[in-house]
Structure formats: C-alpha cells, structure tokens
Description:
The complex is a heterotetramer, with 2 copies of chain A and 2 copies of chain C.
Chain A: H1 15-20, H2 27-31, H3 56-61, E1 65-72, E2 75-80, E3 85-91, E4 96-98, H4 99-112, E5 116-119, E6 125-129, H5 132-143, H6 183-192, H7 194-197, E7 208-211, E8 225-230, H8 239-245, H9 248-254, E9 260-266, E10 272-278, H10 288-292, E11 305-310, E12 325-332, H11 339-355, H12 362-369, H13 371-377, H14 407-415
Parallel strand pairs in A: 7-8
Antiparallel strand pairs in A: 1-2, 2-3, 3-6, 5-6, 8-11, 9-10, 11-12
Chain C: H1 10-14, H2 23-32, H3 36-51, E1 71-72, E2 89-93, E3 100-102, H4 103-116, E4 120-123, E5 130-135, H5 140-150, E6 166-167, H6 181-191, H7 193-197, E7 207-210, H8 219-222, E8 225-231, E9 236-237, H9 239-247, H10 267-272, E10 280-283, E11 286-289, H11 299-303, E12 308-309, E13 314-320, E14 334-340, H12 347-363, H13 370-377, H14 379-386, H15 420-426
Parallel strand pairs in C: 6-7, 7-8
Antiparallel strand pairs in C: 1-2, 2-5, 4-5, 8-13, 9-12, 10-11, 13-14
Helix pairs in contact in C: 2-3
The complex binds siroheme (4 copies) and iron/sulfur cluster (8 copies).
One iron/sulfur cluster binds near residues 174, 176, 177 and 212 of chain C.
Amino acid sequence: MIDTSRYKDDPGYNIQAKLDIPYDPTLADREYNPEKPMAGRLTDQGPPHYEQFFPEVIKKNYGKWLTHEFLQSGVIKYTSETGDLMWVVRCGTPRLITTNLLREIGDISDKFCEGICRWTTRNSVEFHVTDEGTLKDLIEFLNNFKHPGGSYKLPIGGTGAGITNIVHTQGWIHCHTPATDASGMVKSVMDDMFEYWNSHKLPAKLRISMACCLNMCGAVHCSDIALLGIHRKPPFVEDDRITGVCEIPLAIAACPTAAIKPAKVTLPDGKEVKTVRVNEPRCMFCGNCYTMCPAMPLADEEGDGVAILAGGKISNRITQPTFSKLIVPYIPNELPRFESVCKIVRNIVEAYEKGANKYERLGDWAARVGWERFFEQCQLPFTEKSIDDYRLAYDTYHTTTQFKWSSHTDKLMKEAGY
Amino acid sequence: MIDTSRYKDDPGYNIQAKLDIPYDPTLADREYNPEKPMAGRLTDQGPPHYEQFFPEVIKKNYGKWLTHEFLQSGVIKYTSETGDLMWVVRCGTPRLITTNLLREIGDISDKFCEGICRWTTRNSVEFHVTDEGTLKDLIEFLNNFKHPGGSYKLPIGGTGAGITNIVHTQGWIHCHTPATDASGMVKSVMDDMFEYWNSHKLPAKLRISMACCLNMCGAVHCSDIALLGIHRKPPFVEDDRITGVCEIPLAIAACPTAAIKPAKVTLPDGKEVKTVRVNEPRCMFCGNCYTMCPAMPLADEEGDGVAILAGGKISNRITQPTFSKLIVPYIPNELPRFESVCKIVRNIVEAYEKGANKYERLGDWAARVGWERFFEQCQLPFTEKSIDDYRLAYDTYHTTTQFKWSSHTDKLMKEAGY
Amino acid sequence: MADLKKHDTPMMDDLKSGPWPSFVDDLETRGNGGVQCCYDLLGQMELSYVHKETHWKHGGIVGVFGYGGGVIGRYSDAPEQFPTIAHFHTLRINQPASKFYNSKFLRKMCDMWDHRGSGVTNFHGSTGDMILIGTSTDELEPTFYDLSHQFDMDLGGSGSNLRTPACCMGKARCEYSCLDTQAICYDLTMTFQDELHRPAFPYKFKFKISGCPNDCVAAIARSCCSIIGTWRDNIRIDQKAVQAYIGGELKPNAGAFSDRDWGAFDIKKEVIDLCPTGCMVMDGNELKIDDRECVRCMHCINVMPNALRPGVDCGATILNGAKAPILEGAQMSTLIIPFIKMEEPYEEFKDFVDLMWDWWMEEGKNRERFGELIQRQGLAHYIIDILGREPIPQHVREPRSNPYPFWKEEEVPGGWKRSLEDFRARHLA
Amino acid sequence: MADLKKHDTPMMDDLKSGPWPSFVDDLETRGNGGVQCCYDLLGQMELSYVHKETHWKHGGIVGVFGYGGGVIGRYSDAPEQFPTIAHFHTLRINQPASKFYNSKFLRKMCDMWDHRGSGVTNFHGSTGDMILIGTSTDELEPTFYDLSHQFDMDLGGSGSNLRTPACCMGKARCEYSCLDTQAICYDLTMTFQDELHRPAFPYKFKFKISGCPNDCVAAIARSCCSIIGTWRDNIRIDQKAVQAYIGGELKPNAGAFSDRDWGAFDIKKEVIDLCPTGCMVMDGNELKIDDRECVRCMHCINVMPNALRPGVDCGATILNGAKAPILEGAQMSTLIIPFIKMEEPYEEFKDFVDLMWDWWMEEGKNRERFGELIQRQGLAHYIIDILGREPIPQHVREPRSNPYPFWKEEEVPGGWKRSLEDFRARHLA
Ligand code: SRM
Ligand code: SRM
Ligand code: SRM
Ligand code: SRM
Ligand code: SF4
Ligand code: SF4
Ligand code: SF4
Ligand code: SF4
Ligand code: SF4
Ligand code: SF4
Ligand code: SF4
Ligand code: SF4
C-alpha cells in the first residue's frame, strides 16, 4: 500500500468528493464575474493526485509487482509479490475521440473494472481486471464493440513484438502549420498494419510516429518509422499585413539558415512598408518563420507532403537511443488514404520482419546489414536528399572502404561498362 | 616480371646510367648561370621510375607474391607463386639521419642485398635478401651495429602485433611553429617502448604518431596514440612590424573562431598603424594566425607542451577508420626526456596489453569497455578538456543511460553522501 | 436539431472503413447526436483534404486571466462555411500522473465539456495533457472556473513556461521501476506551479520521468530534463527461474514474441551474446553477471523478468536537453548526473533544477531551448561552472577528437600577458 | 677542422643513451667529422631545450626559378651563436614510388648533399618526399641543377599545389595488393608535374594510393584523394590451407602474434565471429563466405593469408577529403566512387580528377582544403552536380537524421511563385 498521507492536504488529493457532486453547468455563470476575475478564483491547484484513481489491486501492490506475461497481444497478466494477480487489456484508440466514446469507456470501466481505466504514453486505453472470468467477458465485449462503419472502437493489441499505437499530432484537425493531415494518415496506416497491431510476430517492438510539420510535436525523431509532414515551398510574404501582424526582427531571427532579410517595399497604394524578403534557395522549409509570423504562410497543395524517416529508437535496451534517418524525402499528400505512405511502411515492415534478428530493432537491423542493403531490401530508391548537408553533416560521411555491393553499385558498374 | 616498356622513354627511367657517373661537384657551378636560369634547364622530370630500384627477385615476382610470415619481429619471409622466397629485415630509424648513416645503409645494402634497400611509409628501413645464410649474417650484423652512445643504429623490429616506428615531424630541429620537440620526444618514447618494438606481444598493431603543432604534419589524428604539441597562450601581436610582414586580412580570415579583429594603434613613436587585436578568451591556440603572420608568435615556454590523443586507427580491418580522441589535454615540456609523456604512454600500452582482446585495436578496446573504464585502467584523470565544445560537439554527447560505474561515479556518490 | 447541417464529406467517409477505430465515425456519430460543430469539423477537414492545406488560421493569443499558457487559440479561415468552429480553441488540462481515471471523473468531465465546448478531445496530447479541443473565447474563463471549482483541476502548460510533466506507469504496474515515477511527477508539478502557468523562461521546458532505462515515456527523446530510473547495486538473480527459462517452462520476454516460431529459447544467443557489455556468463548452471561492467540496458531483465530484477539501491540518471529539430536539429538528452537519489522532498534534485533554470533565464536567448543553450555555451561549462559538478568520462560518448579545448588564463602559468621584448631578446625577428 | 666549435649540449647528450637510434649521436658523429653545421644544429636544439621554444624564424619564401614549391625557407633566430645554420632551407625531393633505392643512388645523393648542404636529411617526410634539411639560399639553384642533371630527379611539392603522391609497396612485395600502386603513383606524378610544381590551387592537394583496405600509406587519413585497392568478385579460398590453420600447422596472421601465448587458433572466435558482417560460416570442413555481404575489411585474409586471397577482379575505391584539423577539425576521406578500374592510362580516373580540380579552383576559397569545400558546399552537390554521378547509399554512413534537405524550385510542381490572392481566396487571413 502506498503511503499518501503526505499528500492529504494537497488540494488535488480529494477530488473524489468533488466528483460525487454532479456537474453544475450554471455554477460558473453564477459565480464567475468577468469584471472581478480574482473573486473566488482558485489557481495553481495542479492536477489531481494520481493515487486516488488507482484500482485497489494497484494500491495494494504498488511497487510490489513481480513479473508480467503476455497472454496474447494486448493482454498482460501481472503477478505481485503478495500473490495478487491482475490482468490488463490494452486497446487502440485514435486519440482524437469525443465525449461519446469517453462515456462508453467509462461504462466499460464500470462494467468490468471497478470503474477504472488508464491511458498509456502512446494513447492506448487500458482496462485492469482481477479475475479471469471478467477478463474473458471484457475481451469478448471489446471484440464486438464497433463503430457504424465497421471499425473497432477499442481494438485489443499493441503489446510485445508488434506495432503499437501511432503517436501523432493535430494535422488539419486543429493546427495552423501542418503540411499534411495526422488523423487520416494514422487511420490509413493502422488499417494497413492492423495485422501487426494485434500480433507478436515482429523481431522486436516497432514504433511508428507521426508529426505534421517539422515542429515534430509527435517527437518522431527517435522512432522506428517516422511519418513527417514537410513543406517544399518557401513562405510567401504578405507585404500588406506583415507590419501589422509580425515583429519583423523575430521573424528574421527565427530562420535557421539566415534566409530572411529585412526589406522595404512600396505597396500598390503607394505606402512604403517594412517587410522581409526570403532568399529562396537558402530556405529549407522549416516553417519557423511562419510560427513567428502569420504573414509568411508556407502551406501549399503541391509543395506539401510526407517524408519518411526510419531507424530511430528510444529505449536503452542493448543499443543506445538513436535518431530516425531520412529515407524517403517526399511523398505527395494522397487523400484520403495516403496509399504510397502505406505501401512504403508496409515494404519496410515486411523487409524488417524478414531480415532482422530476434530482439533487433529496425535501426539496429539496418545498421547491421548496412544501409545499402536496407534500401535494397525495402525497395526504396536512394536519393541525394538522404545525404546530409546540415550542421553535423560530416559525421554521416562514409569514411571507410567498407561497403557492400548492392543493386546501386551493380548499376553504376554496369553503366561504367565494367 | 613487370612490363615497364611503357616507361622506357620517360626521363626518370634511365637514372641508373646517370648514377654510374660520379657526382660532379663543379657541374652546376660551371653550367648554371643565374643570369640565364633557363639555359639548359631541365624541369618537370618527375621522380625516377621506381622499377629500376627493385631487387631482381621483386622484378621477377611483382604481383606474384603468395604469402608472408614473420619469423620474429622485424623479419618477414615472403613466398611467391613462382616458388621464390625472399626475406625482409625491417629496422627502425630516427628518420632524422645524416649522410653518414645513409652511406652506411648503402654499405649494408651492398654487402647483403645486391645494393638495394627501401624505406617504409613509417620511416623504417628494409633490407631484402634471398637466402637464409645471408639473412642470418645480416641480422647478426645489425644487432651489433651501434652508435658511440650505445644505441642501435638500425634496430630490428616493428612488425606484427607491436609498436612500429613513430611517424613524426620536425619540431625544434627545423620548424617555426612547434610547441614541442619531435625527435627528442620520439627518442624518449621509443627508448621506453623498445620492448614492444621488437616483439609481437600486443593484442594488435599499435601506432604512435607525433606532431609538434596542430598543423599535424604527422597526421596524428587517426593514431592509436598521438602525441601532439600544443600552445596555450594566445598569440601576441607585434604592432610595430605587423604591417610590414603580414597581410592583415589573411591573418583575420585564418582564425577559426573569429577571434582576430582589425585594429588601429598609435605606436610609441606616434605613428598610427593598422594591426589586429585578439579576443583572447575566444582563442583556442591553433596557431593558424601565426602560420599566416610572423608578427603573431604563440610559442611560450610555460604555455607550450604536449597533448595526448588515443584510440584512432586507419585500417579498415574489422572496424572502420577512427579519429584519435583527446585524453590528456596538457603535459609540460619536460626536457630532455619527456618523462610524463613516456609514463602515460606506458600506462596506456600496459593497460591495453592487459585488457584488449586479440586483434583488437586500442580504440576498439576503449569503445568496448567504455571510456570510463579506459580512463580508470590507464590511470588517467578525466578533465573537462576532453568534453567537446567545437563544431561537431553534439555527436559526442552521451545520450543514453548506458554507462558503467567507475572510480569516477564512486567518488561522486561518496561525495553526495550516498 | 432541426438546423443541423451535414456537409458532403466523401473523403472523410472513406476513413470509416477498415479495422482501426475511425475518428470520423466517432465525430459523425456525435454530429448525428445534434452537435453541429462535429459536422463542421468534418466539413472543414474535407475541405482541407480537397485543398491539401490546413484551414486553421495562425493561432491567436487567448487564455485565462493570470495564466500565460494552457490554451491554444484557434480560428477557422473559412468561418462562413463552418460557423460553429469559427473559434475553436483548445485547453490543455494537466493529467493525473500516469493517466489513471475513474468513470466518475470521465463522465463529469464529459458533462462539462459537452456543455462548455465541442465534446472533442485528445486523450492525450503528446506532452501528456488531457486536451479539450474546441471552444470559443468566451467559454474559456467559465471552463477554467468549472475545472478549478468542480474538479479541483488545473490547466497544463503552453508557451514559454514549464510544460506539464509526464511519467510512465512505474511502480503502479511495472516490476522494473526504480523510481516512484508518479510521486516525482506529482511533486514537481505541484512545486513548480508558478513556472508552469506563468511564462518566465526563454522557451518551453519539459520534465519526463521513466522508471527504468526502457524509457516508456520517451524522456530521453522528448524532455529538457529526463529523469530515468536506475540502480547501483546488483541485478537480482533467481537461478531457479533462469533454469525455467532455459527449460522452456517460462516464455522469454514474457511472451512478447508469441506469434512466431523463433525456436527454443537459447540463453546464450538471446541473452548472453546480446548483452552490450558481454558481462554475463553461464557458469555451469549458474548465471553470473559482472555488475560493475553492466550498463543497465535492461535487455536480460526484459527477456527473463521472472529470473532477473533490477537492484534495490535505486535512484535516477538525469539527462538534459532533448528537443525537436528546429533550429539546430533534434537533440536527445545528454547524461548529466549519473546517479541521484530521488527521495522526498527531492531537495538535491530541486537544487539542481534551480541551477539549471537560473542559468537558462540568465543566458538563454529568446526561443532558445535548454538543450540549445548547452550546445551554444558548452557541455563542460554547464557541468562545471553552472552546476559545480566534476566532469567525468560518463559525460561523453567518447572524448573529443579535435585538439581545440579552451584554456583559461588562470590555468596557464604566467598568464597570457607576456613581454614582447623578452621574447625578441631570445628570438631575433 | 681547426675552427670547429662544439657547443655545450648536456640535454642533447642525454638523448644518446637508450636502445633507440640516437639522432644526436648521428649528428654529433657528423659534426666530429668536421661539419660545423651539425654542431650548430645540436647547439641550437639545446638552446630550444633550455628556452622550450623553437629558434627558427617564421619561414621565408625561397625557391628555385619557375617552381612554386619544393623548398621550405628557414632561418635561425640566433644566427650569431649558430652562424652555419643562419640559412637552413630544406628541399623536398620527389621519392621514387614506394621508396626503393640502391646504394649507387644513396651514395651519389650523399656526395651531392654533403657538397651542397648540411648532410642532414629526413628519410622521409610525412608526405613521402626525400627531405634534404639545411642549405643556404645560394645553394638552391645549384642543388636543383645537380638534381635534374646528375640524377634526372625533381623537387616534390610544397605550397598551394599538388603534393608529392605516395603509395604503399603494393605488388612489389605484398600479396594483398589489388592495385599496381607504384604504377599509379608514378603515372599521376608524371601526368601532373605542372600542378605539382606551379601553385594554382586554393591550397595543398594530396594523392595517396594503398593497394588494399589495410591502407598502409594512410591514404584515408592523409590524402585529399585516396585511392584504395579492392575487389568485386569473391575472396579466393584454399580450403586445405584453412584446415592447416585450424590444425595449427600454419600460424595465424603470419605469426604477427608470436610473442604471447594466445592459446590454440580458434577459427570461430578469431575469424568468423570477428567478421564485421558475419558473412562467414564453417560448413562442415568448408569455410564459406557470402561475398555479397562481405565489406572487404581484410580481417579474415590478414589472419589466414595462405588460405584466403582477395579476388581477381580488382579496382579502386576512391575517397576524398582527408586533412589535418585546421580549421574545421580533422577529416578522413569520404567514399565517392565505390569501384573504378585503374588501368593505364587511367583515363576514367583522370577525367574524375579534372572535375574535382575544376570545381575546387572555381569555388575553393583561399586556403580551403578540398575536403572543406565538400563540407561547405555539400557532399551531394559534389557527387551529383560536379561529378555527374548518382547518389547511392554507400555514400553515407547513414542517412541524415535532420529533416532539412533543400529542394530546388524545379523539383516542386508549380515552382515557388504562387498567387497570394488565390491563397487568400481559399484562406481568410
Ligand atoms: C504502457 C506503457 C507505459 C505507460 O506508462 O503508458 C508501457 C508498458 C510496458 N513497457 Fe514500454 N510501455 C510504454 C511505452 C514505451 C515506450 C515509449 C514510446 O514508444 O513512445 C518505449 C520506448 C520505445 C522505443 O525504444 O522507441 C517503451 C519501451 C519498452 C521496452 C524496450 C523495447 C525495446 O526492444 O527496445 C520494454 C522492454 C520489453 O519490451 O521487453 C518495455 C516494457 C514494457 C512493459 C513490459 C513493462 C511492464 O513490465 O509492464 C510494459 C508492457 C510492454 C508492452 O506493451 O509490450 N517498454 N515502452 C507504454 C505503452 C505505450 C503504448 O500504448 O504502446
Ligand atoms: C611496409 C608497410 C608498407 C609500405 O609500403 O611501407 C607495411 C607492410 C605491411 N603491412 Fe601494413 N605496412 C605499413 C604501414 C601500415 C599502415 C600505415 C601507418 O601505420 O601509418 C597501416 C594502417 C595503420 C592503422 O590502422 O592505424 C597498416 C596496416 C596494416 C594492417 C591492418 C592492421 C590492423 O590490425 O588494423 C595489416 C594487416 C595485418 O597486420 O595483418 C597490414 C599488413 C601489412 C603486411 C603484412 C602486408 C604484407 O603482406 O606484406 C606488411 C607487413 C606487416 C607488418 O609490418 O606487420 N598493414 N600498415 C608499412 C610499414 C610501416 C612501418 O614501418 O611500420
Ligand atoms: C497538442 C500538441 C500536439 C498533439 O497533437 O498532441 C502540440 C501542438 C502544438 N505544438 Fe507542439 N504540441 C505538442 C507536443 C509537442 C512535443 C512532444 C512532447 O512534448 O513530448 C514536441 C517535441 C518535443 C520538444 O519539446 O521539442 C513539440 C514541439 C513543438 C515545437 C518545436 C519546438 C522546438 O524547440 O523545436 C513547436 C513550435 C513552437 O514552439 O513555436 C510546437 C508548437 C505547437 C503549436 C502550439 C503550434 C505553434 O506553432 O504554435 C501546436 C498547437 C496545435 C493546436 O492547434 O492544437 N510544438 N510539441 C502537443 C501538446 C499536447 C499536450 O500538452 O499534451
Ligand atoms: C616536412 C613535413 C613534416 C615532416 O617532418 O615530415 C611538413 C612540414 C611542414 N608543414 Fe606539413 N609537413 C609535412 C606533411 C604534412 C602532412 C602529412 C601528409 O602529407 O601525409 C600534413 C597533414 C595532412 C594534411 O595535408 O592535412 C601536413 C599538414 C600541414 C598543415 C595543415 C594543413 C591543413 O589543412 O590543416 C600546415 C599549415 C599550412 O599549410 O599552412 C603545414 C605546414 C607545414 C610547414 C610548411 C610549416 C608552415 O606552417 O608553413 C612545415 C615546414 C617544416 C619545416 O620547417 O621543414 N603542414 N603536413 C611534411 C612534408 C614532408 C614531405 O613532403 O614529405
Ligand atoms: S507537428 Fe506542427 S502541424 Fe502538427 S501539431 Fe505540431 S506544430 Fe502543429
Ligand atoms: S521556412 Fe525556415 S528556412 Fe525557410 S525562410 Fe522560413 S525560417 Fe527560413
Ligand atoms: S606539425 Fe607543426 S611544428 Fe611540426 S613540422 Fe608540421 S607545421 Fe611544423
Ligand atoms: S591561435 Fe588560432 S584561435 Fe587563436 S587567434 Fe590565432 S588563429 Fe585565432
Ligand atoms: S520505463 Fe521502465 S519502469 Fe516505466 S513502465 Fe517502462 S519498463 Fe516499466
Ligand atoms: S542489463 Fe544489459 S548490460 Fe546489464 S547484464 Fe543485462 S544485458 Fe548486460
Ligand atoms: S595497403 Fe594492402 S597492398 Fe598495400 S602494403 Fe598494405 S597490406 Fe599490402
Ligand atoms: S574481408 Fe572482412 S567482411 Fe569480408 S569476409 Fe573477411 S572478415 Fe568478413
């Protein structure tokens, strides 16, 4: 049992009492006075204390768990030192969910799990039960729990040597800088990868992540496979409103390649305004200027699309954490189903499934067989865009005579007439 | 037999005929007229053709060698497809040698080797013989061939899993930028390492290289152990002569850290001159300004000394070529015997001898056991100077939780009271 | 309900099929239930799919009184077509550590959000917050009022402040956890409420806490200050269980490889040979680990959880500086403190936090991430001059290969001032 | 002889003892023989040992008519104490490829150098030249005249020009050599005499040629253009010899480990497990290599030279850009051409050289090394736009991890000019 006496005076610790009182939709309207915002104001209360949401079995066995076992993909059995057992069922979600589904999750929790559920760090939902009968019922329930269109509402899976939920970002559902959509791409890729979601047949965990612009809110930079929205046209500059909406020095400072210079132009109406000009060949489309300045939009139907990076990882298991590497520089936004993205992901996953050793993460496999072999086996063309020319580029130069013959060298040698 | 018919018209191919004619010390004085330098001038003849210096057995077996075998350190037996055998005896030299020794080398070549010898890429001399009797005599001769002070003139060794001749540079014998001496340090270290020179007892080859300033003419940047002369005081600026002897813009451009700025000063005699000023805290003592500008000397008795780098390699064997890494930032110039340098080299070599696997180069050993262990086992203090803060620094940051406990962490934890 | 307007959304509709949960179905079902903004959201998404461009304007600055973060302003750039999402701000709500909830909470939150906003959410945002997507400016204060008064809850971070800390489930469920991840997360969140709500930093700052080096909250990739559990004594070994793995009674890696025939478990091939340091041997029937050589990578423990357990003398490794690519390229966190005890009230750790932040607030440029400051001013400078710690080899993957360290004047005997005359007395120019 | 002046050199004298050949003894013996400059050289060295500073002035520009390199000017800064070395220039003499000599040559060269200079030499300089250390300005032209007329020899490189190419001994003695290293070295040296003697480059440029990936001339570390032998067919295997190694009849690595007891040879441990690609197996008594997976690292061949030999379809791997640390840090050469046949007259290779140099002469800044230009303008740009070659994965250790590639306007449909009006028609500002 965990000792939470130390928290008992924390405001967040007693939220349960509050929760027992039904939501009062008129409270704020009655009590909150915009003229006196500080009246009765509560601030800096922080989040509720986590412990009060734990199932009893967790409270009792906190820090006492002995081991775990996957009964099937998405179903984990935990054993405690105390002899207690707990089963967890993990379900995928699209993360973008409405209160409709949230209420249903509440209902399921009530029905099977003392009312409790949790979300994982990759946006799966987990249900905890303490007996096998309930486990069976829960699984059966979830397997039949579907949307009108036929998709599972809460598909079981996502553990072990398979593909987990795709960490992703807002895309066109909510953000202002995306170069592609997030939710639609995730749906498309996960539909295609579903067989890996609910099975343990890969050589190791494979994490796909997705971010809709280079800000990388999905932090895709250390993922086995990273899907990344990219722009390919420099921002244009709205001379007629830039002074009003931007701090020009901030926009200039935002550019990593110093491509933005201050400028003065005369507008059609004769007014002289301060604005900026972009040295377009120096632009690498990061969008940081737009983040700082609404009058410099980059989004463009033809320019935007998806890049794929691969071979990153986070865990310290066997090998050290590694960055993902740019292997496909651009795929147009094919809507609604992102066919090429799906196809390439599949090629990579299948080549990995076939080629890697047990316990070997995707990037470790690529490093072991060599990137020449990786491109060959994933049937990906190699382009100059994968050759670094940014700050630390030199460290990716190939300063050895060690390389493998591959289709690439075959072709070169054939062309050279050897 | 190699086909050199293709070269027969090359000027350099027939040098033998010239060599038969004794040196004529008055020829140039007679024929060369400084007023008419082009008269009878021969230019762009290039080097003599190599083939004419080959021993007969090499001419015959060029490209036909089958295998080799080390009979002892410094003695290699070569076998050809043709059945021919050849023995090579390798001898150390200090590289800085006079015509006295060169003549003696010629004598030895005449006596034992059809007059022929060669130098290796690391400045050892090699003698080639074709029968075992001569081999025995040669070895005996060399073992007794000594300087008045007792040192060997041509010590046999330098092959296989041992320490070879130290590639080095000019130092105080001839250069203007050294921060230490080369010949004296090499002599001191090789005296101390002599047991490794003429034996095969290390886990792999161990290459020591030496360069007397950051220009690194010895290209020490990929050596198992690199000894490097370094300055530690910024250049001073001789205002009274800089304009005469330097192109100021070149000096400014030479500085990698942009520490040099143009300046104007008034000399004691009232004359205003253009000069430069050094932003001293930005200087990292590379000496490139002095290379461009004689009025900016860096050399200083107290500032100068030796840095040690380790763990580099060149061959592509098993692992890829690697840079040496800075492990000892500074040792004062201890003259004449560089005791601390010798001591540290010995510590490293002995730790390596003890710790490394067969075939494992020093840097591969350090990478395998971890650099924390390397410092511990070589009894070297770790200093902040080994932490990179130059251009590609980030790639040496330790972005993992994987590390070993070592004396360093023991100390920290003890201090923290754990 | 009468004036509900469903847009023609053929591409959205296509995203209903297939097994993976369809956000379209969810939104549409909610729309069908009479929530126009869900229809409008789908309509605008469809338009984005047609134009291949977002239809959200560049964010506006909105928020609640006295806070500098927690709300992301958002306006449609096609408000005439989609009036109910003309304003569509999100609120970031600070999640309970490791994200356990009960149904009471979920339902009351749904009641609130249905009333005050769109009923659309992200469970959860990438940083860890509960995200309520879509409400109008005038609902922001009432929502905050509801949250604070009816839930005792609070907003999470956005802007140049501390972001909502996050952690893995740790000891709640995981036998590997070397840290009380939730307790640390909660304590830091409570201690630094001011930093979380009132932007005083040069840019955003993130804490993440993982209980062990498996790093299930991606701390090393996504946090300016990564707190990762480790141990300094020995891996606990149950030799009988080792034999059970060898004998096949126990499934390797807890069954994580169950859907493929990898052949019988081979402890040599699967554990001993894969250990990155080679510090394990089978000595007869006994598995032996040379713990001094172990780098605590977790592999052997992951493969044989019933047989091996982390030690009991636990603490954290602290790493600094992870961030996304803009501007200088992505960074992972760099090892700074190899081992620190994380015991309440975490004073030693908080002293460190003070040093970290003081430096950054003093020296950091506008929009310079903490990791970028370390790079710009130098890792050694940070460790030694700012933190007052000793540099150790563990701070680097390998020592520098360039010969360009800086020397300070006081380190060099005689300093830097020299007499030109003396020099020239020794050396003719 | 009468006015010979020996200086008091206690520290130099200390460098006579010990087993390693003493340069002091050599110089002193020559001094004793009546050569004052050797005494003076030791005297000045002693003074440097006392002052811990060099006593050579910053180099002066001296040379021979019509050449821009080959001589390094050097003057003592204590000429009154050491008058015979007041001028002490060095000449770099282009060595014969792989540095075989005969005694006739050595003796005549000694005669010449004793007459024209100090009799002090470096056999050899780091670049590969024969270095004659120490003569006065007025002896330079006569020395050059002697060299060219009495030896048919020439100066090597210095300054911003091609430096003297160098190679390993290759097929002269080594069974591993995949290239006729000497022939290539000689041909390049002869072909590029003009570039070697008349500075027309932004900075120095070096060629080095190694016959195989053991790289005994350190090409990958020390040359702007590294030519390293390799093969593209299969490693030749003599299975009987493999058995002889296994059986202990043949010594591993040709006896290179003879002075220590490493135990009996274990082909698995010493060869198969150390192969970086794991592409070897023992299939019964037969050693099998999956040559497509081999990276030609030489290890197995080095260990069992009697059993394994490189293939017969040979050529070179070309790498570019090695250099010492100043300014941006040291570089190793980077793989550019994975395989090129090196057959006389090396036209394909020389076409490549032209492209390389044209670019550098066009774009290189003053004192910018070739490797620095590649870094500054980008490896891909060099490969594709300058060399007109296809980018292949072998060009990188690993693909870039930042998402910052440049796109050219022509690569993007519609180009970069866009209509702001159209954009704002779709998107309200
Ligand atoms: C639930 C969750 C923690 C949480 O607080 O929410 C979790 C739970 C577990 N992780 Fe994890 N990990 C979770 C995110 C992660 C992440 C973070 C991420 O992906 O963003 C990582 C780092 C991934 C990476 O390296 O790129 C992660 C790397 C691991 C590893 C190392 C795997 C590897 O081969 O490198 C293990 C060890 C293992 O799998 O044996 C592990 C092991 C485990 C165990 C076995 C721990 C335990 O004893 O319970 C849990 C079940 C594993 C499983 O699902 O196969 N967990 N785990 C997270 C589930 C996310 C999801 O819904 O998919
Ligand atoms: C004579 C020389 C070539 C020349 O043209 O002059 C030469 C000769 C041989 N080298 Fe070398 N190497 C020579 C410089 C080098 C260099 C260059 C250097 O050190 O500056 C290297 C790269 C060193 C590095 O990686 O840092 C070099 C790395 C090798 C290797 C790879 C060793 C390794 O473990 O990485 C081998 C293979 C071996 O030793 O089995 C090799 C093998 C050989 C063989 C066995 C080749 C043969 O079949 O004859 C020769 C005798 C080896 C020995 O001495 O143990 N040679 N060898 C050079 C002798 C220099 C000296 O006097 O010491
Ligand atoms: C909501 C969220 C994405 C999501 O779908 O989950 C998000 C959304 C935004 N992020 Fe983020 N970031 C979110 C987590 C992240 C993460 C991941 C993390 O925290 O683990 C990262 C990468 C890690 C890091 O901190 O570097 C991240 C890196 C960025 C950046 C780039 C920062 C940088 O230093 O390079 C920006 C740009 C900026 O700050 O101006 C950014 C900016 C933004 C803005 C505010 C857009 C902007 O340019 O101002 C996005 C608002 C979207 C919207 O309309 O709602 N967001 N952002 C995540 C926050 C949810 C939450 O609070 O839980
Ligand atoms: C003689 C020699 C050293 C030796 O003792 O062997 C040498 C001596 C000098 N080198 Fe060097 N370098 C010599 C091989 C090298 C090498 C090694 C190589 O070629 O394999 C390098 C490193 C590889 C490279 O090219 O980067 C080398 C990198 C430098 C540099 C730094 C170049 C750079 O890009 O960073 C300089 C500085 C400069 O060029 O101004 C330099 C400059 C010099 C100068 C001319 C001094 C100067 O600042 O002007 C030295 C004249 C010394 C003297 O008084 O005799 N020397 N120099 C070598 C030439 C002998 C020969 O021709 O055989
Ligand atoms: S990744 Fe970019 S587009 Fe996507 S949510 Fe983050 S800031 Fe917005
Ligand atoms: S997109 Fe990035 S690189 Fe291009 S101008 Fe804007 S800030 Fe600069
Ligand atoms: S390393 Fe420096 S000091 Fe030594 S010879 Fe080369 S340039 Fe001169
Ligand atoms: S020594 Fe180097 S860093 Fe210092 S001022 Fe001179 S050029 Fe600049
Ligand atoms: S990081 Fe470690 S302690 Fe936390 S959930 Fe993952 S495996 Fe368990
Ligand atoms: S935790 Fe990793 S390093 Fe330590 S013994 Fe296990 S496998 Fe080896
Ligand atoms: S580089 Fe290769 S071919 Fe040349 S000498 Fe060395 S081992 Fe022989
Ligand atoms: S040469 Fe190297 S890579 Fe090729 S088979 Fe031999 S050991 Fe393996």
